[in-house]
Amino acid sequence: MLAVGLMSGTSLDGIDAVLCEITGFGLNTKIEQKNFIIYPLPASIKETIKRCCKSEGVGTDVICSLNFELGELFSNAAQFVCAKAGIATQNLDFISCHGQTIYHIPRKTNQFVASTLQIGESAVIAQNCGCTVISNFRTKDMAAGGEGAPLVPYSEYILYRNTEHAVALQNIGGIGNVTVLPKECQLDDVYAFDTGPGNMTIDEAMLQMYGKPYDDGGKIASTGEVINKMMNELKQHSYINMDPPKTTGREMFGPAFVHHLLKKYCEEKPNDIIKTLTWFTAWSIAENYRKFILPKDNLSEVILGGGGAHNKTLQQIIQSELPNISILTQEEKGFSSDAKEAIAFVILGNETLHHNPSNVPRATGAKQKVILGNITYPN
């Protein structure tokens, strides 16, 4: 089957669109990447998403409109990645779309029930592209008592399980998340959780101080020094010590979090602030490993994915924090750091079409395995 996976994450660096050929399902899944693009999000859309993500953000009319606007953009991304391969979207077997997270409440609070909202109207995608669309993957896991994330552990089990040693797959998108595959594991042995900030805090600080969307290759961080007072404050963040399963997002590490730090440390050099935030991401990853993974599993390697895998300074700091473990990238294992999550949703969509559960309860906290996603037909 031919399928497209679409992913727009918390980093807001564009829509990841991957064209794949996929056969089988479950442990018999075979998948081959045919093409991959990052379809840009207009600056006005990025700003609207950021406003919608704030708890005191915007009216429901803005979210209503944005849902359909994103549906058009997801359609465009699917059509573009297919056109580059000379394929019409009408000839796809399905499109699998994570959507854009607007707000995520992983656990019940005094004020709200556990809930999540991803938008990017699937009916618009199905109508424009003329094929079946699977979307809205998180909600069924949450209905079963889970946190709705992380969802990629299933695909990582399919693609990376190893009979010889334990492996950790560390994604560094806007948020950092890890999947642990113990040696000779079964699906029920897999566990995963969000480690804390990924690129989100670094990117926001880069935008505010340098007018750039990200620190290309970690070059600016490489020229700075860690601000000890700031780092000590960051190390006290309550999320880092929270027991898994746990998830986080823009609500905790978004613009408001960064703006507070920039205001408090406004006398410090910009490159030192970028270095400290980069160190915080690396430290939070390593600290989660030290607390929650290494006491149980003797890791020999960590495979980095997501945009953060291109940040050489970040990679070097992670290696210094975990000196006895090999820190590798997806490219070094023959995969793509950028396409990884979009490929995951092709696998999840394929499982849905085969009526197969694809959440990992040990990762999300769900009470049972469930079939994920909603299916929208083209007509």
Structure overview:
The protein is of the alpha/beta class and 379 residues long. It folds into 2 domains: 2-148 and 345-376, Nucleotidyltransferase, domain 5; 153-333, ATPase, nucleotide binding domain (Nucleotidyltransferase, domain 5). It is built from 15 helices and 12 strands. The chain has helices spanning 43-53, 60-84, 122-129, 138-143, 153-160, 200-210, 219-222, 228-235, 238-241, 250-253, 255-264, 270-293, 312-321, 340-353, 361-364, and strands spanning 2-8, 15-23, 30-39, 94-105, 115-119, 133-135, 166-172, 175-181, 191-197, 299-305, 326-329, 374-376. The strands form 2 sheets. Strands 1, 2, 3, 4, 5, 6 and 12 form a 7-stranded mixed beta sheet that branches. The protein is globular, with a radius of gyration of 20 Å. The mean pLDDT is 95.
Question: What name is given to the CATH topology of the largest domain?
Answer: Nucleotidyltransferase, domain 5
Which regions are unreliable across 5 or more consecutive residues at pLDDT < 50? Answer: none
Q: Give the name of the CATH superfamily of the largest domain.
A: ATPase, nucleotide binding domain
- One letter per element, helices H and strands E, the order comes to EEEHHEEHEHHEEEHHHHHHHEHEHHE
- Count up the domains: 2
Question: Architecture of the largest domain in CATH?
Answer: 2-Layer Sandwich
Helical residue percent band: 25-40%
> Can you give the mean pLDDT?
95
Describe the main β-sheet briefly: 7 strands, mixed
- Beta-strand level of the residues, as a percent range? 15-25%
CATH class of the largest domain: Alpha Beta
Class derived from helix and strand content? alpha/beta
Radius of gyration: 20 Å
